[in-house]
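Notes from hallway chat w/ T.B., transcribed later so I don't forget. T.B. wanted the structure written out for a chain they're using in a teaching module, and asked if we could keep both sequence and structure tokens in one place. Agreed to drop them here.
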Amino acid sequence: MSENKNGAGFYTGLFLGSIAGLTMGILFAPKSGEETRSIISDKTSDWKEKAEELSEATKERIISATNEGRKVAGEMRDEDYLEDI
């Protein structure tokens, strides 16, 4: 289980590092305000789309895990019931 926490920490660090790098790159790039706003708008749209995709994938995984958990719980309940007979 600790592997999941380490993996989550890695991806959190990667995500936050990406945001910091993007921000610094935009702030220190020699571009006009209009160009910078355009870049920010484009990146925001890209990130929003990616977040929606990840959210949908996470939702599907949670539903799948819930259904699998219900199935296993039902099987265990049936086994316990049969043992009591």
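Follow-up for T.B.: The longest helix spans residues 33-84. Might be a good example for the class.
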